[in-house]
Amino acid sequence: MEFLDKRTASVVITIVLFIAAGAFLYLAGRVLIVFLFAVFFAYLLDPLVSRLERWRPLSRGSRSIAILEVYLILCLVFGIVLFLVGPAIMSQGRKLGDALPGLFEKVASGQIAWQIGSSRGWSYTTQIRLQQFLASHRDVVLSWAAALGSRVAIFAQNVIWIVLIPILAIFFLKDGRNLTETILQAVEHRQKQQFLSAIAEDVNIMLAHFIRSQLILAGLSLVVYMSVLAALRVPYASVLGSLAGVMEFIPVVGPFLGAVAILGVAFLANYNHLFVVAAFLIGWRLLQDYVVAPRIMGGNLQLHPLAIIFAVLVGGEIGGVIGVYLSIPIAAGLRIVWKRWQRVYANGRPTIKAA
After folding, report:
1. Using CA atoms, how far apart are residues 26 and 228, in angstroms rounded to an integer?
2. Residue 96: which residues within 8 A CB-CB, separation 6 or more?
3. Considering the entire predicted model, what is its pTM?
4. How many distinct helices (H) and strands (E) make up the chain?
5. Using CA atoms, how far apart are residues 252 and 266, in angstroms rounded to an integer?
6. φ, ψ for residue 122, nearest 5 deg
7. Among 13, 106, 158, 285, which has the highest number of CB atoms less than 10 A from its own CB?
8. Is there a contact between 39 and 47 (Cβ–Cβ < 8 Å)?
9. Can you tell me the distance from the alpha carbon of 54 to that of 254, in angstroms, rounded to the nearest whole number?
10. Alpha carbon distances (Å) from 292 to 111, 220, 221, 335
């Protein structure tokens, strides 16, 4: 008599494989994320590489030469931008870094209430109440400051992984198509091969459009933030503008955190026109979300706003900031798989059409 029948053994093996896969994802999560962002970076550069590859006077039809040319162009553009705005950002960044501990200490002790209240004409009662409130929550403020410092330290420790992303992207740019074709050819059943091929094509188009759109929106926001904050004479305008622009690359949560950073630093630095800055942030958010983003994104993702909010919340709960960023393309990818499954298998007919 067998201890386990064939069906039970199959279920046990499946569970073990799922557990092993989950353990692998947990232990190798950082490496997998780096490879995933390398794929995204390759999607971003692929159109330019393909165009230069077809431009024979320069690349002579070689994809490797076209990739090298694209990276040289990127280095040149990055160097010019760094030369133009880098010194201002680094100078203000050092000043902000030196000033933050003192600002947090003023908040924790309640001294900030007297400094800001006296310049804004607050009553003595209001100032004393705010001072007492902040002093009673001193431990909370200091814990926030410590958490912020630890996150900055963790980011600094992981800079090497960011450097690896463009290096790994070279291999995906060069051999990504061949890798996809090899995987598809491993599927023997023709209907399944067509199904997977159609999904791969749809996901390829969706991801390419999503990554490029996010970069355009983030770049546009960076220019607007830096220009407007500088015109309004907000303290540390270059640092705050560049930070908020980069945060725009993270859907939903990034713009909110960028706005909080701008208003928070402006408040702590005793900036006199907070309401003007707040009005600008609200106006730009409405313009970005309802005018600029729809025109750039188009209807490519085909996700309901409620589905996007749900995906972002779930992604943030599971994977933090990385989960938030990946939530929308994953949700759009699941939609593509579901639509393809319905069209191919719902009626039992192998019909392959655009999703």
Report:
1. 42
2. 236, 239, 265
3. 0.69
4. 14, 0
5. 22
6. -70, 155
7. 106
8. no
9. 37
10. 42, 10, 10, 24
Q: Cα separation of 336 and 354, whole Å?
A: 10
> What pLDDT score was predicted for residue 26?
62
Q: Which of 213, 214, 240 is nearest to 225 (CA)?
A: 240
Q: What angle do CA 101, 104, 110 make, to 5 degrees?
A: 140
C-alpha–C-alpha distance, residues 228 and 237, integer Å: 9
* 3-state secondary structure at position 206: helix
Q: Give the C-alpha separation, 216 to 225, whole Å.
A: 14
Residue-wise burial string across 275-294, b where 16 or more C-beta atoms lie within 10 A, e elsewhere:
eebeebbeebeeebeeebbe
CB 314 within 8 A of CB 304: no
Helices 138-157 + 63-109 axis angle, to 10: 160
Q: Where are the alpha helices (DSSP H) in 137-272?
A: 138-157, 159-185, 190-231, 237-247, 253-268
Q: How far apart are CA 92 and CA 94, in angstroms?
A: 5
Q: Which tens digits make up the pLDDT trace of 97-124? A: 777 777 777 766 767 777 777 766 677 7
Q: Which two tokens stand for residue 164?
A: 């690896």
The candidate with the shortest Cα–Cα distance to 251, out of 325, 198, 334, is 325
Residue 43: partners with Cβ closer than 8 Å, 6 or more residues away: 204, 207, 208, 211, 212
Tokens standing for 296?
A: 């750039």
Q: How far apart are CA 254 and CA 288, in angstroms?
A: 13
What single DSSP character describes residue 250? S
